[in-house]
Amino acid sequence: MHNPVALGTAESAAETPVTEDYDLMVIGAGMAGIAAAKKCAAEGWRVAIVDSLPYGGTCALRGCDPKKILRRGAEIIDSARLMRGKGIDDAGLTMNWPDLMAHKHGFTDPVPQSMESGLDRAGVDTLHGHARFVGTHQIDIDGTRYQAERFLIATGARPRPLNFPGFEHLIDSTDFLELDALPPRILFVGGGFISFEFAHLVARAGSTARIIDRGARPLKSFDPDLVELLVDRGREVGIELRRSTQIADVKQTGDGYQVTLEHDGIEETVEADLVVHGAGRIADLAALGLESAGIEWSERGVRVGAHLQSTSNPAVWAAGDSADTAGLPLTPVAVSEAKVAASNMIKGTTTAPDYAGIPTVVFTIPELVRVGLLESEATEQGIDLTVRYSDTSGWYSNYRIGESTATAKVLIDRSNDLIVGAHLLGPEYSELVNTFGLAIKLGITTRQLKSTTAAYPTIGSDLGSML
Ligand SMILES: Cc1cc2nc3c(=O)[nH]c(=O)nc-3n(C[C@H](O)[C@H](O)[C@H](O)COP(=O)(O)OP(=O)(O)OC[C@H]3O[C@@H](n4cnc5c(N)ncnc54)[C@H](O)[C@@H]3O)c2cc1C
Ligand SMILES: NC(=O)c1ccc[n+]([C@@H]2O[C@H](COP(=O)([O-])OP(=O)(O)OC[C@H]3O[C@@H](n4cnc5c(N)ncnc54)[C@H](O)[C@@H]3O)[C@@H](O)[C@H]2O)c1
Questions:
Q1: How far is the CA of 219 from the centre of ligand 2 (A)?
Q2: pLDDT in tens, 137-192
Q3: Which CATH code fits 167-279?
Q4: Is 87 annotated as a binding residue?
Q5: Residues enclosing ligand 2, CB less than 6 A?
Q6: What pTM does this model have?
Q7: Residue 347 marked in a binding site
Q8: Among 27, 39, 140, 381, which residue's CB has the most CB atoms within a 10 Å radius?
Q9: ipTM
Q10: Does 249 show up as a binding residue in the annotation?
Q11: 1-160+281-356 — its CATH code?
């Protein structure tokens, strides 16, 4: 933790004294901000980082990591159920939510201190408070003013504001990951990552899950055939999906909620004990005073050029969920963009991030995975495709664990034998996709991939047969 010392006066008309003068100030101590701060400090730059919340950001504290710890409980319940009558008696097996939460806290609680210590060791000044631009090269942090030659905006994303009557009754993903108990009936607004992942979790914990999506197709960025298989598998464990349905309003009723749904002009009211926001996230920029620094932005993020520098203020860079780039709002993308932005600042270069081969996973049970192009995108690009579609449910790996929903769709460019997309639905396929990602990134042909030998029997040894 850094104690500021007053240095001089502000460069602009502002009269508040400027406390420090840095080579780089990073706003947001999530995965993007921390990666960039360390990289620039390693070059001998004077670097400061600030966050209004404990250090660690969404992924480590309120997203990927705690979510997947809680999912472990659901995995065990589901795995035992799949082995019912095959040697496992799952009668009486239950998820103890408070114990699972305590297990989660065992991971998340030490994160802020350990992140901050790592930054301290790297020579980065660690600041706390809400940052707001007050000039092209100045920010205010809770009444103290700082000046820097450059800024990296890495403020992440927040739930998209909703406007139907009663929206204030919804809890968001952060609240969900802190729940003391799971109530019996949970309704999720939106048919994306958050709703599907949480619905698969609560369904194994004994709650009923209902997902309301305003679109006809949930999980739109994934292969539509595989999404339908996942929806069917979800139905088997009690997850109900309503498509093309709007929320008309949410009313509190004693200790629960009445949610009025509207589909094709017809209204229907359903009961829920909890209503969860899974209707998308927007860049967290509205309270950052970007106008004071002439920084163009939208809800997609800070407008940046291909090398992540602001299109309107050359002192400003952006990375991760708060940058308007072609990269998806995912942790590996945030880290990769932050490293590219830092490298461009240090070397004065104009490198663009390379998003090729970065996989994305919906951590449902089983998991849904994508890397590379969708089949429709590849066809639109005129690629002469071979589509290798395999129902892998009967393969040894899935037979062994009793899973009856598993599929692979691999898209291969016939002209050069390169994989352009891989879409998988099945247990442990979130590990297998990393090999597909490697092949896409490094331009490994299917012939070369098939020439490698995996340990047997492993999920990796199924890869050759998927090609
Ligand atoms: C429930 C959930 C599950 C997810 N699961 C996955 C997953 O499994 N895999 C995956 O790849 N991605 C996942 N994501 C997405 C992933 O968490 C984000 O893409 C990633 O955290 C973005 O990192 P970031 O550094 O850009 O922003 P963040 O980690 O959000 O960090 C931004 C930081 O900026 C701070 N901040 C904001 N405004 C200010 C301000 N004005 N002053 C000071 N500080 C400020 C915030 O407090 C925050 O700590 C998930 C997201 C959610 C919500
Ligand atoms: N495993 C992961 O990598 C992971 C997990 C969770 C979140 N995330 C990140 O967080 C982001 C946000 O997740 P998310 O699930 O909130 O959003 P999302 O963008 O994945 O899905 C939002 C869904 O909500 C629907 N929707 C929007 N407004 C609605 C309304 N008023 N009523 C009904 N439906 C509505 C949309 O049609 C869409 O299907 C994701 O884009 C993802 O990048 C990633």
A1: 8
A2: 999 999 999 999 999 999 999 999 999 999 999 999 999 999 999 999 999 999 99
A3: 3.50.50.60
A4: no
A5: 162, 189-195, 197, 212-215, 218, 246-247, 278-281, 328-330, 360-363
A6: 0.96
A7: no
A8: 27
A9: 0.98
A10: no
A11: 3.50.50.60
